[in-house]
C-alpha cells in the first residue's frame, strides 16, 4: 500500500499533536475530535480505517516535532494516507502568562514565529517520509480558537497567527481547518469545565470543520 489505496486494504489515519488530539475535555462516553474525524473518514471511504495517535497533553509544537521523529511515529506517518496535526495552543499559553506578568508582548511574537516554523518543519518531515509524493497522503492542520477571548489583544494575535498558518496551504495536500471562527462568539458554549479545552460539542464541530475541507481518493 505504498502509493495507492486498494479497496481490500485498510487506509491509515495518524493523529498527532497536543491535548486537542488527546481529547482532553471530552467525556468517557462522548467521542473526541480524533474519534469524530475517524468516523467521518470511514463514512467517506466506506471501509474500516486504521488509526494511530501520537499526542501528549501540554505539548508545544517543539514537543510535537520530537514526537513525530520517534521511530514508531515516523513509521506510522510513512504509511499513513491521512494525517491531522494540532498544536500551538501551549506555545501561546506559556507566552501569554509572561505577557500578563510583565506586559512585554515579545514572548507572544516569538511564540508565533516559532510555532509556524515548527509546523513548516512537520510538513517537510512528512513529505520526506513520503518521498515528496503529495499524491500519497493528505495533511489537515487545525488552527487555534481562543479560550482567552475575554482578554484584550488575544483575538488579534490569534487572527494574525492563523493567517500565517493558512499560508501552509500553498503546499500540495495541506489544508488548514478554521477552528477559530467555529468557536468565535460561542466559546462559553463550546468549552469544557476547565474553560480551555473543548467540550464534546466543540470537538464534534472541530471534526466537522476539518472534514469539510474534503478528502482525497487514493485509489
Show the helix and strand layout.
Layout: E1 12-17, H1 19-22, H2 33-45, E2 50-55, H3 61-69, H4 71-79, E3 82-85, H5 89-102, H6 106-129, E4 138-142, H7 154-166, E5 174-177, H8 179-183, H9 187-190, H10 200-211
Helix pairs in contact: 2-10, 3-6, 5-6, 6-7
Widest sheet, order of strands: 2-1-3-4-5
Mean pLDDT rating: 93
Report the biggest beta sheet as strand number plus sense, adding barrel if it closes: 5 strands, parallel
Shape: globular
Order of helices and strands: EHHEHHEHHEHEHHH
Based on secondary structure, the structural category is alpha/beta
Distance from N terminus to C terminus (CA atoms, Å) equals 10 Å
Fraction of helical residues: 40-55%
List how many beta strands DSSP finds.
Answer: 5
Computed CA radius of gyration, to the nearest angstrom = 17 Å
In quaternary terms, these chains amount to single chain
Q: Into which percentage range does the β-strand content fall?
A: 5-15%
Low-confidence stretches: 1-8
Number of helices: 10
Give an overview of the whole structure.
The protein has 10 helices and 5 strands. With 219 residues, it is α/β, with parallel strands linked by helices. The protein has a 5-stranded parallel β-sheet with strand order 2-1-3-4-5. The model is unreliable at 1-8 (pLDDT under 50).
Based on the model shown, name its key terms.
219 residues; alpha/beta; 5-stranded parallel beta sheet; 10 helices; 49% helix; disordered N terminus
Short description:
This protein is an alpha/beta fold. It has helices spanning 19-22, 33-45, 61-69, 71-79, 89-102, 106-129, 154-166, 179-183, 187-190, 200-211; strands at residues 12-17, 50-55, 82-85, 138-142, 174-177. It has a five-stranded parallel β-sheet with strand order 2-1-3-4-5.
Amino acid at each position: 500500500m505504498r502509493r495507492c489505496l486498494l479497496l481490500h486494504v485498510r487506509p491509515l489515519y495518524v493523529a498527532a499533536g497536543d491535548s486537542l488530539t488527546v481529547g482532553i475535555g471530552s467525556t468517557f462516553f462522548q467521542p473526541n475530535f480524533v474519534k469524530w474525524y475517524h468516523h467521518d473518514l470511514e463514512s467517506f471511504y466506506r471501509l474500516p480505517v486504521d488509526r494511530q495517535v501520537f499526542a501528549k497533553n501540554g505539548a508545544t509544537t517543539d514537543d510535537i516535532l520530537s514526537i513525530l521523529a520517534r521511530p514508531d511515529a515516523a513509521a506510522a506517518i510513512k504509511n499513513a494516507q491521512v494525517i491531522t496535526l494540532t498544536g500551538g495552543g501551549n506555545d501561546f499559553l506559556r507566552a501569554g502568562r509572561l505577557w500578563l506578568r510583565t506586559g512585554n508582548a515579545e514572548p507572544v511574537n516569538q511564540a508565533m514565529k516559532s510555532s509556524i516554523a515548527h509546523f513548516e518543519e512537520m510538513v517537510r518531515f512528512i513529505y520526506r517520509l513520503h518521498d515528496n509524493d503529495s499524491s500519497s497522503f493528505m495533511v489537515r492542520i487545525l488552527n487555534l480558537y481562543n479560550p482567552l477571548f475575554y482578554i484584550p489583544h488575544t483575538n488579534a494575535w490569534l487572527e494574525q497567527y492563523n493567517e500565517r498558518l493558512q499560508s501552509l496551504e500553498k503546499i500540495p495536500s495541506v489544508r488548514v481547518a478554521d477552528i477559530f471562527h467555529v468557536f468565535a462568539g460561542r466559546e462559553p458554549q463550546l468549552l469544557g469545565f476547565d474553560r480551555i479545552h473543548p467540550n464534546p460539542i466543540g470537538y464534534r464541530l472541530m471534526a466537522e470543520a476539518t472534514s469539510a475541507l474534503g478528502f482525497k481518493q487514493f485509489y
